Amino acid sequence: MQMEETTKQGVQVKDILLAHQALKDVVVKTPLQKDAILSEKYEADVYLKREDLQVVRSFKLRGAYNLMQGLSEQDLQKGVVCASAGNHAQGVAYSCKALGVRGRIYMPSTTPRQKVSRVEFFGEPFVEVVLTGDTFDDAFHEAMTLCNEEGMTFIHPFDDVRTIAGQGTVGMEILEDIDVPVSHVFMSIGGGGLISGVGSYFKEISPSTKMIGVEPAGAPGMKTSFDHGEVTSLPKINKFVDGAAVKKVGYTSYEIAKNVVDDIVLMDEGHLCSTMLNLYNENAIVAEPAGALSVAALDDYKDQIKGKTVVCVVSGGNNDIDRMQEVKERSMIYQGLKHYFIVNFPQRAGALREFLIDVLGPDDDITRFEYTKKNNRDKGPVLCGIELKYQEDYHALIDRMDKKGFAYIEINKDEDLFNLLI
Predict the structure, then answer these.
(1) β pairing state of 45-50 and 32-34
(2) DSSP letters of 131-199?
(3) Which run of H or of E encompasses 53?
(4) By C-alpha distance, which of 306, 294, 407, 272 is closest to 351?
(5) CB neighbours of residue 339 within 10 Å
């Protein structure tokens, strides 16, 4: 009955204060750092809340532990279950070990080995990792089946007021560590737990502060739900921003978010990749895609935040180094510096030499050259990747291909073909 009443009311400041007490000896109070480079760029005082420096390198530990420590002794003895492909799994695993609770964590069989190893490291010997299916939905189904069969408690990553209260301690720490009014707080939205919790705290303690959520353009679950006036499941999502790629936000987090969120920015994945590289090259911050969403959104708000104090929550830093080449590739495509074509070379002698000499500009570089038909190299089409030094060189390149009679298809402009070939 108490849980039902709390759900109706949303998350109160008292709930977050209680969560803070429960978490104070478990989580790291992550630093709130003024970033000189970003502050100069946006002519504002830009602070970063470094949840990437959390003990499990994301904020997810806060919500998972707060939910679990509030379970009855009977429920803890039965054990807990979760489904996750990343950060939430690590938070639950760490909590299981800290509380001495048996846990079973279902992860898609496609989860990178590095992430599985981290979950095992944080949770051993209390946690068993089960790899099943190809997607989060497959893992979720198996996890719920186990809960129903064995009476174990499911630890939801966002659709539970106890999880949301735990995430709300991020907001409490921000206001503890800053002594000037905060104009805007930017943070990522996946299922909505983080912004619901932080927003609940700010709207009570600092109601003038604007809560700005940021979602991947390929997974706009909360924005779509806001537009429809109810929780709406997306038919498909782009999974690149894995920490925020959720088909359906939580019902509880949606009900709270619609009262505390002031705006939602949809972020192009290529733009996000450029931000990730800038954070690494200029600030030595290794942010995962979801963790960099908040900083990327500053471009959309550069006029509104000028001269003000803003905070960006860097929500996580579990970024697989093997993805960095893809991040660089997406960034260059977004900036107009990398272009892919399928080129049909004219059936005449010296066509390739002509392409290299007469079509490519002096600063253009071929980064990929691959015949699409291995048995017909004389006449077969070629997959060609071209890197430009300047964005404006693109139109001249296209003009030269047209004038020289090279038939081509621009892969960058065909999403299905791009995902198939690149």
Answers:
(1) antiparallel
(2) E-SSSHHHHHHHHHHHHHHH-PEE--SSSSHHHHHHHHHHHHHHHHS--S---EEEEE-SSSHHHHHHH
(3) none
(4) 407
(5) 22
In this predicted structure, the answer to whether residue 4 has a pLDDT above a threshold of 50 is: no
Neighbours of 275 (CB within 10 A): 23
What ranges in 10-133 are assigned the alpha helix state H? 13-23, 36-42, 60-69, 73-78, 87-99, 113-123
Q: Are 102 and 96 in contact, with CB atoms under 8 Å apart?
A: yes
Short-list 187, 196, 204, 201, CA closest to 231: 196
What are the pLDDT digits (tens) for 245-298? 889 999 999 999 999 999 999 999 999 999 999 999 999 999 999 999 999 999
Report pLDDT digits (tens) over 324-361: 888 999 999 999 999 999 998 877 778 888 899 999 99
Please give the positions annotated as active site: 60, 315
Question: Is this structure's pTM higher than 0.85?
Answer: yes
Q: Is 87 exposed, middle or buried (0-12, 13-18, 19+ CB in 10 A)?
A: buried
Residue 390 · residue 363 · CB < 8 Å: yes
Structure tokens at 65: 């532990």
- Per-residue pLDDT tens for 222-238? 999 999 999 999 999 98
Residues in the chain: 422
